[in-house]
Design brief:
Length: 622
């Protein structure tokens, strides 16, 4: 039979002795003894996790500042300072050799550009009849088909589409009674992008739908010298054509001059002198003269004018990097000092007071900060000193002097160098090309399909023989390896004996796998060669290593953080289990007390009955 354990019921029979109030007091005492200590530990754990996150974040910030000063990139930055006529703008990439250059611009690269006569409307029809004409640029011929309904705007679109964007046609509003002109220009600068027009004499066997003559483009205001017979010349589409030459302005008649188009600029290459050497390029932007140096030609120099460019080590940002390092270190130390302090008078302690993982940070870092390099240099030589409070101070004047006058010493102290040990796999025999070379070669997990036929053909389907065939097959194998998606830092070549050579770069490993018979054909075997990457030198390398030992994937603080997380899970589970046990204990107690309460009530009732009978008997005997 279920027992009613409602608070309003319990204690009625026992005169409120076995009551809920008594149970609550007992349970509160047990909770204080068994659960509250766990709740306190859980709260302490969460506080430590929160404060540890703050410390590791500050360590990461400090490590970032140190890495900026330790890494090569900081010392590979370059400045390009130009003086003189400034006819050339120069930008440089990191790592370019420090050097001086003298530049003089004789000619800027330009586009071929033409403007048509003026029109009253964009939608005005251009031609009186159906016509086709040609435009040549960059050694290719393009045919434009138009009809009597083709408007000025539509003709521009046809030119753009037909020439694949190599020639750009657009309509400009230049003002006046007839405000619209068509501009036809090459998309790129350079002599190779010269625009030529031609008429189409016959469409037999070609792609043109109509014909034209040397007067067709008068509709655009273009007048050409009378063309002479071209002896059946054809364009690349098979049309019989006649090449056209635009009349010079002084050869135009007075009537022709009234509304003639003209050539605005002529396609030409840029010409300049680099340290006295004549250079020609198709563009005014040059990025292939010196690796990592970009030149932009701005104007033509007058006689005797030059631009002098000095490429030097850039120190911009280094002072800021040092200041950031000092500030991040001091923020870290202030946080650690607060977290590990102990006040003997009040008995108050920081979150990590006595925690070795945290208290040892200061000792480990100061060991590096106070150290001396193999050259006898210390941070103090660069204006950075440690105060009695354990914080860094910076004397900017000393640091600035070292950066500007003794940069090599500064670089040698702070920076480190990455050294690679590269590995090479060399075939043990020359590849025999007399058989098919077909199979799968796996390099560093990338599977490469090799399919080289015994009878090798060129792109025209001609079967190659002897030396030509072997050379082509070698190139096909090298191309297959070079083009393999996901295979980086591995190059393939052949040595003088015809053996396949695989070479790693940047310390990359080389692992070769494949079916043994196929590997044998290539002179290879399954193997793994281990490359190596090593950071050497630099006073701060030790500091960087120490920081990695704290917050790296296997660092001491990383392990401490994992232990706090594990402890939190364990404490939470223990607390929940104890709470569950207490709840069960006092639920059972309430049920039993309810039963006892009922029994007591019955006994009291019986006692009251007996007492009533005794009292009645006594009254009867009086």
């Amino acid at each position: 039979m279920a027992i009613n354990t409602e608070k309003s019921q319990l204690g009625v029979g026992s005169g409120n002795i076995l009551s809920w109030d008594t149970i609550d007091k007992l349970k509160e005492a047990d909770t204080k003894a068994m659960v509250k200590p766990l709740e306190t530990k859980i709260q302490d754990n969460l506080t430590k996790q929160k404060d540890l996150t703050a410390i590791t974040t500050l360590l990461s910030t400090f490590k970032g500042s140190v890495s900026n000063l330790t890494g090569d990139n900081t010392y590979l930055k370059r400045d390009a300072n130009a003086t003189g006529s400034n006819s050339v703008s120069v930008s440089v990439s990191a790592g370019v050799a420090e050097q001086n250059m003298n530049l003089s611009v004789q000619q800027l690269a330009s586009q071929d550009s033409f403007q048509s006569k003026t029109f009253g409307s964009r939608t005005e029809s251009v031609f009186d009849t159906d016509v086709s004409f040609g435009i040549s640029i960059g050694g290719k011929d393009y045919v434009i088909n138009a009809d009597s309904t083709t408007t000025l705007e539509q003709l521009a679109e046809k030119i753009n589409e037909a020439t694949e964007g190599k020639v750009q046609a657009k309509i400009l509003n230049v003002g006046g009674d007839e405000p619209f002109r068509m501009i036809i220009q090459s998309a790129q600068t350079g002599e190779a992008n010269k625009i030529d027009f031609y008429s189409i004499q016959s469409t037999t066997g070609g792609s043109a739908t109509n014909t034209s003559d040397d007067s067709t483009l008068k509709a655009l205001g273009f007048y050409f010298d009378k063309a002479t017979a071209s002896n059946g010349a054809t364009d690349s589409h098979g049309n019989t054509i006649m090449r056209l030459t635009l009349k010079q302005p002084d050869k135009l008649s007075e009537d022709e001059k009234k509304n003639a188009g003209s050539q605005i600029s002529t396609a030409q290459d840029a010409k300049f002198k680099y340290n006295g050497i004549d250079i020609t390029r198709s563009s005014n932007t040059i990025d292939d003269l010196i690796l990592g140096v970009n030149l932009t030609l701005n104007k033509v120099d007058k006689d005797g004018e030059t631009t002098n460019v000095n490429i030097t080590q850039s120190t911009e940002g280094i002072m800021e990097d040092i200041k950031a390092m000092v500030e991040s270190y001091n923020s870290l130390m202030n946080n650690i000092n607060e977290a590990t302090k102990y006040d003997s008078e009040t008995g108050l302690a920081g979150t990590f007071q006595g925690v070795r993982e945290i208290t040892s940070i200061t000792t480990e870092l100061n060991k590096i900060i106070n150290g001396v390099s193999k050259d006898g240099k210390s941070l103090a030589d660069f204006g950075i000193t440690l105060t009695k409070d354990g914080l860094l101070t910076l004397d900017s004047s000393i640091l600035n002097d070292m950066i500007n006058t003794k940069f090599d010493e500064f670089k040698n102290f702070f920076s480190s160098e990455t050294k690679f040990t590269n590995v090479t796999a060399v075939g043990d025999k020359k590849i025999e090309w007399s058989d098919d070379i077909k199979g799968k070669l796996t390099i560093n997990g990338v599977e490469i399909d090799i399919n080289i036929e015994k009878d090798f053909t060129d792109k025209d389907g001609k079967t190659l023989t002897n030396g030509e065939a072997e050379k082509a097959k070698k190139n096909a194998l090298l191309k297959a390896i070079a083009n393999a998606s996901g295979l980086s830092d591995i190059s393939a070549s052949f040595d003088k004996d015809g053996k396949l050579v695989l070479k790693g770069s940047g310390g990359t490993d080389i692992e070769i796998k494949g079916e043994s018979n196929f590997l044998t054909k290539l002179g290879l075997k399954e193997q793994k060669l281990d490359g190596k990457t090593e950071i050497i030198g630099g006073f701060f390398k030790g500091l960087n290593d120490t920081l990695n030992g704290l917050i790296g994937s296997e660092g001491s603080l990383t392990a401490y953080e994992e232990s706090l997380t594990s402890s939190h899970k364990s404490l939470t589970a223990s607390k929940e289990q104890r709470q569950k046990e207490l709840d069960a204990k006092y639920t059972t107690m309430a049920e039993k007390w309810s039963q006892y309460d009922t029994i007591i009530a019955k006994l009291e009732a019986q006692m009251n009955t007996v007492n009533s009978m005794i009292e009645a008997a006594n009254n009867a005997n009086k």
